[in-house]
Amino acid sequence: FIMKERCGTATGGAEDEGEAEAGWIEGAAILLSVICVVLVTAFNDWSKEKQFRGLQSRIEQEQKFTVVRGGQVIQIPVAEIVVGDIAQVKYGDLLPADGIFIQGNDLKIDESSLTGESDQVRKSVDKDPMLLSGTHVMEGSGRMLVTAVGVNSQTGIIFTLLGAGGEEEEKKDKKGPKQYTFCSALLAKQQDGAAAMEMQPLKSAEGGEGDDKDKKKSNMHKKEKSVLQGKLTKLAVQIGKAGLVMSAITVIILVLYFAIDTFVVNKKQWLPECTPVYVQYFVKFFIIGVTVLVVAVPEGLPLAVTISLAYSVKKMMKDNNLVRHLDACETMGNATAICSDKTGTLTTNRMTVVQAYVGDVHYKEVPDPDSVPAKTLELLVNAIAINSAYTTKILPPEKEGGLPRQVGNKTECGLLGFVLDLKQDYEPVRNLIPEEKLYKVYTFNSVRKSMSTVIKMPDGSFRMYSKGASEIVLKKCSRILNAAGEPRIFRPRDRDEMVKKVIEPMACDGLRTICVAFRDFNSSPEPDWDNENDILSDLTCICVVGIEDPVRPEVPEAIRKCQRAGITVRMVTGDNINTARAIAIKCGIIHPGEDFLCLEGKEFNRRIRNEKGEIEQERIDKIWPKLRVLARSSPTDKHTLVKGIIDSTQVEQRQVVAVTGDGTNDGPALKKADVGFAMGIAGTDVAKEASDIILTDDNFSSIVKAVMWGRNVYDSISKFLQFQLTVNIVAVIVAFTGACITQDSPLKAVQMLWVNLIMDTFASLALATEPPTEALLLRKPYGRNKPLISRTMMKNILGHAVYQLTLIFTLLFVGEKMFKIDSGRNAPLHSPPSEHYTIIFNTFVMMQLFNEINARKIHGERNVFDGIFRNPIFCTIVLGTFAIQIVIVQFGGKPFSCSPLQLDQWMWCVFIGLGELVWGQVIATIPTSRLKFLKEAGRLTEKEEVPEEELNEDVEEIDHAERELRRGQILWFRGLNRIQTQIRVVKAFRSSLYEGLEKPESRTSIHNFMTHPEFRIEDSQPHIPLIDDTDLEEDPALKKNSSPPSSLNKNNSAIDSGINLTTDTSKSLSSLKTSVILHPGYFITTVF
Predict the structure, then answer these.
(1) Fewer Cβ atoms within 10 Å of its own Cβ: the N or the C terminal residue of the chain?
(2) What class of enzyme is it (predicted)?
(3) Lowest mean pLDDT: which of 2-6, 217-221, 598-602?
(4) Three-class secondary structure of residue 899 per DSSP
């Protein structure tokens, strides 16, 4: 005590006897708080990961495959396929196992995921019958006998080569390996040079086109941060810098004030025995500085985003949205355009024939079987039964009185239903001519737009049945069956008349028109079946049917919501333009009298291409703003349109485009779009693979739900920010001014950590789990340039901060008089907690609690309690926090620097807190438009998006901190390398490695191929060697198999992949020259 007196810090006798024993409490309490924060964060991360794994496994379990067992065609999960199963493969499948093609037609496989070759491989029973797992069926159908599954299949073997741990590999193989599992395995084993090299071609295997363009495209796709991430990163950095500056100033002011007060004003000497006392003071000041920093940095931001996204993803499952990529959910909230398919998305995908043109008569409903000539009827039944996939069937309804179940291709189901409506049956015909007896099949694809099947007649001649889009098949017809069932000549002018009188009226009723035809061939000479153009001509038309696919009842309302929310809906379909226009009017995509465009694919292409046939962006810009319907479009047209809209600079905001797709060839468009929706029921595996979200019910109205959730994520983050920044500003200013004026922060370190826990972790949980409301769809999308913190939010933040600061400073300086208690200001080191500071702490927390309710609204709404009970998590957290606060204040004691309060003091604290709600109403009355001086924050400007050059480099995205770190690492490695290089040069010259490099070797082995400069340099993934390369020198085998990783810095090519170093040893270290021998004739010199 005497010593302290001498050191100039009068304690006023408040020193506690057991002070020494209680010294550990504060440190332990801080440690405990930190552990709490870390555990809560870790728990959140874990639950997010678990949820994501759950989604992944659900996607895998949902992947079913059709097999024939015991004569029955059944669908089983991919994991249950065994050797010996007969699997049915069809267009769009991702093969889950290896097998032998035993029967089928026109099967073409894309094997690029294994070979890197993008050409489709034709499979036949006698020539190349092997089908391999991981490859895609691009055309045709058939059956295969499964010969290898799991680890023994082709993909399994590759995984084994990569050495992806035992169990993991079994898991991965079971799920019919997907391309991203190849990539993850690739990344995991990148150190294993040899294996990684063998796998290199897989990288470019993206849906067939394994060329560089695709690689760049997928790169750009990954590169662009989601809008929200970009804005948040920027904001967090700004806040962090401000906090750092504040905390530094706090410490400097405290130290200076103490030094001046002690040594200048009181003229004390720095005595040796005083050093421990002074050090204690400095430590205390440092802790206050750290506290200010901790409170200033919003580490709850990433947490809030994660919780919000994870929560949304979980809830979206109930709304039939299976989210495969987390940020797709948030991107969807900014969508400005949706390009949707027609069939199955806007319509029910339950095809029924409602009109027919048979025997020169146009029937407005299904004709009576007796009114159709017997010959025509027989031909019609055969043509439909034989010329459709045998997997397509109409089964009895599951429930009594329900509709018959349609299995397989829906258009074919409609035609089979037509046969049943004509009181005929297709099964006997199929039993008579089973699938094996079909002579030749031209399967349907997007180029042909028709399907034809050839059968051999009993007399040895051939008959071909054909069906397809009416305008395409009718062009190939030269005869038509008349009222007696006899063929008559069908001239082009008859065709034009038929188009006018039959097809257009059907199409204007929104019907899809299908023409059914046939042709007979002589047995000798046998026609050249490969000459498709000659075969598919000179047909005889049997009938034209109009198939209705009714609009889903909920779609018009969903589209109206989209339009109100500022989202343009466009229909992209393969159907006839009149059908498409009629459906678009029924859905409400177009309204009569509006200025819009409906184009066919051909016309669209004619308008967007120049004389050389190249697509021009300016031409697309003239079309897309008014385009609402694109009919008879190919998948390429869809991709062109999506790319054109995304790349357009016509509007100030970049368009954010969502696309729906179900076919294999929709893959590129789904990948290109900002958000790709694949159909869960009708979608092929390839489409699901390329998508971001899978619609489990194939319904357009689920997309609207996704928009709602996306906007909700954005709003949740804004609510959290509004709350968090208010607390930040107040806590930092209180700690800062308090420290400067009274040499001690009114809010102690442990209290600050508790406040931090409330405002970061709990608040992010409470505010990020608000359920979405319909009101979210009443505003336009925010777009990329809209700041995260709007003027209204800034007004709320500053307004509430003013209220809180006024009250806290009032309590700090005159609080002791108001409550008639001892003042807590200027208390000596280690004095017991005062009631005065406890009241300040308690009031502060109460104000935050009530302000959390204010933060629920960010657009200046008055009713902050609106829908509060719809969010049980919010209520639980607010009440829970209140309860814990009571415990801390009443029983926290020394560790929390709290002294128990009386009831009347508690009432005052709660009353001041309640004042927040009243003050919120006052702030809401001030019109934001008047407050011009308020700045918005968290804006993402166009310029800050990743520049082009950076996109084109094949370099992973690195943030600035990491780049700085890498620069440091590079300098460190250079130091090591200089020593290493000396040794390596000597070794290189001593061994015959150098001559070996000079000899032009044959490029048979894939390893040699990879070291060749054209291939190697472009493909090397830059990363920094984190181990000393000298270990590799000792083991020549190791050296051969692994390429030292290259560094990021352009000037430091010295450690480039698979390259030997030679150095000019005569130079001094300061201007060390390093030459790099790449290959005969290549010599690069860099100077460090």
Answers:
(1) N
(2) translocase
(3) 217-221
(4) coil
Q: Tokens for 644?
A: 């054109």
Rounded (10°) angle between helices 700-742 and 227-259: 10
* pLDDT per position as a tens digit, 691-741: 899 888 888 889 999 999 999 988 888 898 888 889 888 888 887 787 778
Helix (H) or strand (E) holding 1087: strand 1082-1087
What tokens appear for 1058 in the block? 């698979």
Q: What is the pLDDT of residue 1?
A: 47
- Active-site residue, from 98, 214, 341, 662: 341
Averaged pLDDT score across all residues of the chain: 77
φ, ψ at 87 (rounded to 5°) = -100, 140
Between the two ends of the chain, the Cα-to-Cα distance in Å is 62
The DSSP letter of residue 350 is -
**Lookup: tokens for 133:** 């797992």
Report the alpha-carbon distance of residue 516 to residue 505 in Å, rounded. 18
Going across the sheet that includes 1082-1087, the strands are 1060-1063, 1073-1079, 1082-1087
The two three-digit tokens of residue 392, written as one number: 């397509």
User: Residue 679 phi/psi, 5° resolution?
Assistant: -85, 130
Single-letter code of the amino acid located at 586: K
Whether 679 contacts 344, CB under 8 Å: yes
Q: Estimate to the nearest angstrom the gap between the alpha carbon of 420 and the chain centroid.
A: 45
Interacting residues of 1017 by C-beta distance below 8 A, sequence separation 6+? 1056, 1078
**Tell me, what amino acid is at 540?**
T
* Phi then psi dihedrals of residue 587, to 5 deg: -75, -25
Q: Which two tokens stand for residue 345?
A: 């998305």
Give phi and psi for 357, each to the nearest 5.
-120, 105
Rounded to whole angstroms, the Cα distance separating 390 from 440 reads 14
Output the pLDDT for position 629.
94
- Tell me how far CA of residue 697 lies from CA of 54, 129, 320, 345, 694, in angstroms: 19, 36, 6, 9, 9
Closest by Cα among 337, 291, 428 to 734: 291
415: nearest Cα among 575, 576, 545, 580: 545
**Can the peptide bond before residue 1080 be classed as cis, meaning omega within 30 degrees of 0?**
no
Q: Which is it for the CA torsion 931, 933, 936, 941, positive or negative?
A: positive
The SS3 call for residue 748 is coil
Distance CA 867, CA 769 (A): 13
Structure tokens at 916: 């927040």
What are the backbone dihedrals phi and psi of residue 561, each rounded to the nearest 5 degrees, phi first?
A: -60, -45
Name the β-bridge partners of 517: 466, 541
> Using alpha carbons only, how large is the chain's radius of gyration in Å?
37
pLDDT score of 37: 67
Please give the single-letter amino acid code of residue 947.
P
341 is catalytic: yes
Q: Are 676 and 659 in contact (CB under 8 A)?
A: yes
Using the predicted structure, report yes or no on whether residue 1087 has a pLDDT greater than 70: no
C-alpha 749/C-alpha 65 separation (Å) is 60
Element spanning 1084, H or E = strand 1082-1087
Q: How many C-beta atoms lie closer than 10 Å to residue 1065's C-beta?
A: 11
**3-state SS class at 18:** coil
- Say how far apart CA 330 and CA 579 lie, in whole Å: 34
Mean pLDDT, residues 503-508 taken together: 90
d(CA 1029, CA 984): 10
How many C-beta atoms surround the C-beta of residue 597 within 10 A?
Answer: 18
